[in-house]
Write a structure and sequence with these properties.
heterodimer; A: alpha+beta; four-stranded mixed beta sheet; 4 helices; B: mainly alpha
Amino acid sequence: MRPIRPPLLLAAIALLLAAGSPATRAQQGPAEAAVLKQRMAERLPPLTQWKAQGILGENNRGLLEFMAGAARQPAAEKAVAAENADRLAVYGKIARKNNSTAEAVGKARAQQIAAQAPPGSWLQDATGDWRQK
Amino acid sequence: MRLHPQIPGSISADGKAVAMKPWLLPGLLLAGIAAGNGCVRVKTEPIHITMDVNLRIQRDLDNFFGDLDQAAPRTPAPAANQPEP
């Protein structure tokens, strides 16, 4: 086997360390957040429409839920799954940053959503009951 | 009074009074102060930390969702009698 040159080995180790360094992660963070935000912004019009139609509600964990008896269009199902996955990713990132849990961040977000939701929106309160604002 | 040969204030087996070691009283006082200070910290710090974390979470949520929340249309939903899930 051909021996590895020490400078090459050192460079490889330095590269690996730099890839996992907090500075690199900090650079990746804003870019990842921008991608998540862009996707959420694109989903916003249809999700808002479905919420206004009473098809979707906001639960007490900061996630979207289909209301019982509502028509579940495939497009809506796909959008809700993608939106909830992205929301959980954001909650997880904020939780890690603040040494908290994604559940706690989701609950805090649910309170924000409830406060900002327009009248007529379906919201789940802290006890689990659904009410129309 | 005959407690224990090593306990200050008691009388040893040979009938002599046991004197308190000179470092014992300041040592006990320091230990008491340290223990008291520790209790105060345990009661107050977690409250401050919890409040601080909640505020930071609120701020981070505002930073991320602020633009999206402002972009969301604020038209009221129709007052339909939607059954609860």
